[in-house]
């Protein structure tokens, strides 16, 4: 007899979603995977640790002022197109990069001085003109709409989802989380496989792995049970019994309480692990959110042995990049925060002795127009990003450098770049480095079969 499994599937889905909820208005890391939370039987060899860190720039970073044309001809074209938005050429000398084989030269933004040092040291690379694609796409195919394209191009929510999940808005899992699914069994405590230090992002949700959320101070506690409630320890004890006790006759109530108890236990485990690691000597800018998030990631990596993890995926973010206005006034400050946060984080991985085992990359909704709208730039498509780490073959570009033009061979209009490298190719390269097999890549990236080149050669 064939059994109807729908009620069981509905129960599991309810519990998966309920595990992400907070209690009494207090945020808490409830998102603990029912399938992966138990202690894994498998363990990896000591020292076999790798971590991947996504730094997401919400709003759509302006590529034109992040990597700037520097040779005379290219800069003249850039300045003519950007007009008042153009970065002054004399401010780029200290961050100018080597001349390419085609005679063209680029410079990092003036605010990227510390990242230029990592480029020179071979620890940072630039991925050129990367963006969301369904398959390799030419300009002629784009204009003819003869190949499938990402849904709702130039839309923030949709392109954030496609970047993070390879699926439109409404996706329930991202490629970071799906990668985490494969690592659950290799981590002694699987709860800490996917950790988000900036809130919630589909990138970090898997089919089984669910992101564990932390603040820049560490584990998020349920205040009502970690300290007296309304001045009464008895109330605190009663609340703990209410939300963690397993003596429930209703199956769903009992299961939910077990999930909550695991969350409470995880908070205690994480707090103890962080308390047991020495303070980092690497300085971080404590006035900047991104630096604080990456400082917490560094501390979590320092606690990796106490947490029993050999593979981890992290997510941090910074917003403010939707600069239709005030680009010249506000963009440099955002780039300064990225420069300082990433450089300090790399220094912290060196201090911890794991620089070769941690890779960090930037991502964003999309690039922006090369043309000016008067005081800013508008939504675009392709953009430039950085990949950083001790294992990265840095000091070089990956991908194709686009022409500096409007309505040129790389442009779908207004200097919106048609990506020549797909996010899926970037993800496949990073996943392979993390240890995902070629057989498992389609599980992480369902569209990767559309690409012949699945490894961009960073490592």
How would you characterize the overall build of this protein?
The chain has a domain at 53-187 and 195-217 and 285-301 and 312-450: 3-Layer(aba) Sandwich (Alkaline Phosphatase, subunit A), CATH 3.40.720. The chain contains 14 helices and twelve strands. It has helices at residues 6-18, 72-82, 113-120, 139-144, 156-165, 175-183, 223-226, 233-244, 251-275, 289-302, 304-307, 327-352, 423-434, 441-444, and strands spanning 50-57, 67-69, 106-108, 124-131, 194-196, 212-215, 218-219, 311-318, 358-364, 383-389, 397-398, 421-422. The strands form two sheets. Strands 1, 4, 5, 6, 7, 8, 9, 10, 11 and 12 form a ten-stranded mixed sheet that branches. The chain has a two-stranded antiparallel ribbon with strand order 2-3. Strand 6 and strand 7 form a beta hairpin. Mean pLDDT is 88; it is low at 1-46. InterPro entries: DUF1501, TAT_signal. It comes from Pelomonas cellulosilytica. This is DUF1501 domain-containing protein.
